[in-house]
């Protein structure tokens, strides 16, 4: 009896340890108001001693591309902080009266080869950096805090150079503007303000921006504009609930939603590129992360929205990709039916 | 411990530790104000990046002063506009005790204040700050409006001004007449660079360190 009790006790203890491990690995990074901490190259500061927005670091992380999610690029720490990511929580909440609140995430990426040279001390940070993105979340609509083109033109010495909209002419966010000829794109959407500060070229900057608009719309804390949920049906069965989003009138969704329509996939994800080849009945399409084109057996096709990654998948314009694979798409209201031919 | 030339001056009075960590390293070894100022300017030019972002907010009267979000600027890795560069250079210099550094613009921002009399006595208006042609890109590039050779135009430019009216500019370099890419650069000239021009200008900026 004693042995049995001991064995049971030992097993109970082991289960307890496993549970604690699982729980602690799923806990969001905790930084208390007034504290600043560094976790694996992520500098987090919580300024909310008097007021908070109830957003944590993980909430901000969901709004931006992952550290190795952009092919050919890797995060690089700045020389000043040693951090590749800076998360600023509850700015404005330091002292009363609290008239504004903002939480933001700022991340730096460099091309992989340059990042190697930078780590070896061969080149400075300014020659390494290739992509910089910042996403701000406010307690009210971002435009209330002057995140508009007209205010931007007043505040910056080069304000006159900013042009409304995007290089493609598509309508991004609620209001968007960019620097023509340069990889700089900005937009506001709900409580969010997104600044693609630096990117290799204007269309890459815009593609990055579209991916962030998707993230904002998908965010569990409803940071974007309210959209009526879209339902995708295959053989009258709903699939991929909540994963399809309308980006300025074009529905995008993870490419895997086509799987029930007899589409097979071949994914090639390396540090240099991320492609998916989808095929069905002799037809095929090849899609690439951050590309505005898709390759098909008939040639190259310009996409209505760029391809971008999200949670391990490539998000694609649904109708164009489906129809290229011989799948008819019919939309009625918020329901999209995929009809394999 | 950080050793400085003199007690820090406003606006870095008291000096921010985050600024001293930078200024004391960049100006290491200098024992004169001009020497330290030059080193700080060259380092900021080398490490800074001109980009479509700013950490400066204009006041209600934009020509009276501005608010500079120093912590955010440092965290962003010295990225910004001319006013960010100028304001940060003021902070760097005053943190090591160099006195009376102000951030100076070439033009007022408000259009109504730009009206002036031309040399011929006629009324006129200050339009842009325009540099002399800069030789920063391969021969044959578009001379105007892009990140390439030629004069660069801005509504205004901003730089750090010392009390003896020396200009310290961590963003734009003014090259000697006839200077060509690859020529050695003398003391107070620095090379213009920004985010998109970095790759083009590398051969020129490397000349700084010959």
- Residue share in helix of chain A: 10-25%
Can you tell me the number of structural domains of chain A?
2
**Spans where pLDDT lies below 50 across 5 or more residues of chain A:** 1-25
Largest sheet of chain A: 10 strands, mixed
Number of helices of chain A: 6
Strand count, sense and barrel status of the largest sheet of chain B are: 3 strands, antiparallel
User: What form of chain A results from the Cα inertia axes?
Assistant: globular
Radius of gyration over C-alpha positions of chain A, nearest whole angstrom: 23 Å
Broad structural category of chain B: alpha+beta
Question: How far do the termini of chain A sit from each other?
Answer: 68 Å
Whole-number average pLDDT of chain A? 88
Please tell me how large the radius of gyration of chain B is: 18 Å
Topology readout:
The complex is a heterodimer of chains A (341) and B (210).
Chain A: H1 2-26, E1 36-39, E2 42-46, H2 57-61, E3 73-75, E4 85-91, E5 102-111, H3 112-119, E6 129-138, H4 149-155, E7 163-164, E8 175-178, E9 185-189, E10 192-198, H5 202-218, E11 231-234, E12 237-239, E13 245-247, E14 250-254, E15 264-269, E16 274-280, E17 283-288, E18 293-296, E19 299-302, E20 308-310, E21 313-317, H6 318-324, E22 327-332, E23 335-340
Parallel strand pairs in A: 2-4, 11-23
Antiparallel strand pairs in A: 1-2, 3-5, 4-5, 5-6, 6-10, 7-8, 8-9, 9-10, 11-12, 13-14, 14-21, 15-16, 16-17, 17-18, 18-19, 20-21, 22-23
Chain B: H1 17-26, H2 33-47, E1 49-50, E2 56-58, E3 66-68, H3 70-75, E4 79-80, H4 82-95, E5 102-105, E6 115-117, E7 123-125, E8 129-130, E9 153-154, E10 158-161, E11 167-168, H5 198-207
Parallel strand pairs in B: 1-4
Antiparallel strand pairs in B: 2-3, 5-10, 6-7, 8-9, 10-11
């Amino acid at each position: 009896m004693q042995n049995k009790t001991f064995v049971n006790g030992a097993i109970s203890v082991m289960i307890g340890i496993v549970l604690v491990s699982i729980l602690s690995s799923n806990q969001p990074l905790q930084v208390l108001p007034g504290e600043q901490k560094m976790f694996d190259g992520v500098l987090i500061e919580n300024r909310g001693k008097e007021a908070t927005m109830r957003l944590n670091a993980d909430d901000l992380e969901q709004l931006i591309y992952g550290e190795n999610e952009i092919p050919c690029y890797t995060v690089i720490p700045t020389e000043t902080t040693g951090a590749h990511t800076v998360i600023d929580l509850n700015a404005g909440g330091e002292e009363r009266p609290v008239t504004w609140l903002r939480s933001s995430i700022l991340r730096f990426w460099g091309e992989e080869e340059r990042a190697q040279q930078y780590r070896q001390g061969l080149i400075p940070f300014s020659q390494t950096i290739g992509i910089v993105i910042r996403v701000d979340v406010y307690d009210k609509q971002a435009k209330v805090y002057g995140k508009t083109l007209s205010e931007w033109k007043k505040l910056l010495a080069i304000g006159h150079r900013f042009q409304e909209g995007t290089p493609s002419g598509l309508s991004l966010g609620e209001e968007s503007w960019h620097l023509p000829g340069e990889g700089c794109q900005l937009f506001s959407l709900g409580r969010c303000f997104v600044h693609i500060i630096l990117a290799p070229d204007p269309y890459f900057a815009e593609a990055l921006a579209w991916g962030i608009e998707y993230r904002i719309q998908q965010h569990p804390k409803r940071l974007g504009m309210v959209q009526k949920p879209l339902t995708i049906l295959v053989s009258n069965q709903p699939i991929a609930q909540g994963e399809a989003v309308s980006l300025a009138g074009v529905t995008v969704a993870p490419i895997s939603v086509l799987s029930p329509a007899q589409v097979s996939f071949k994914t090639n994800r390396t540090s240099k590129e991320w492609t998916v080849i989808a095929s069905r009945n002799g037809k095929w399409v090849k899609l690439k992360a951050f590309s505005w084109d898709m390759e098909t057996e008939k040639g190259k096709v310009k996409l209505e929205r760029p391809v971008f990654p999200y949670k391990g998948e490539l998000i694609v314009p649904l109708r164009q990709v489906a129809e290229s694979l011989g799948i008819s798409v019919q939309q009625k209201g918020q329901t999209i039916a995929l009809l394999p031919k | 411990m950080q050793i400085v030339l003199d007690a820090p001056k406003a606006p870095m009075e008291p000096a921010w530790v985050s600024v001293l960590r930078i200024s004391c390293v960049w100006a290491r070894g200098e024992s004169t104000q001009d020497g330290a100022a030059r080193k700080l300017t060259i380092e900021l030019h080398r490490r800074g990046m001109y980009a479509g972002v700013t950490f400066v907010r204009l006041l209600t009267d934009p020509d009276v002063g501005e608010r500079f979000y120093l912590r955010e600027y440092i965290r962003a890795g010295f990225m910004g506009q001319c006013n960010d560069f100028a304001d940060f250079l003021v902070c760097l210099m005053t943190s090591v005790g160099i006195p009376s550094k102000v951030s100076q613009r070439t033009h007022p921002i408000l259009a109504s204040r730009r009206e002036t009399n031309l040399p011929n006595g006629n009324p006129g208006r200050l339009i842009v700050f325009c540099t002399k042609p800069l030789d920063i890109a391969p021969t044959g590039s578009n001379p105007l409006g892009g990140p390439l050779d030629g004069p660069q135009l801005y509504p205004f430019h901003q730089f750090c001004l010392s009390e003896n009216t020396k200009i310290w500019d961590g963003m734009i370099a003014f090259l000697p007449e006839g200077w060509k890419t690859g020529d050695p650069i003398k003391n107070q000239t620095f090379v213009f660079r920004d985010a998109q021009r970095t790759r083009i200008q590398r051969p020129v900026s490397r000349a700084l360190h010959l």
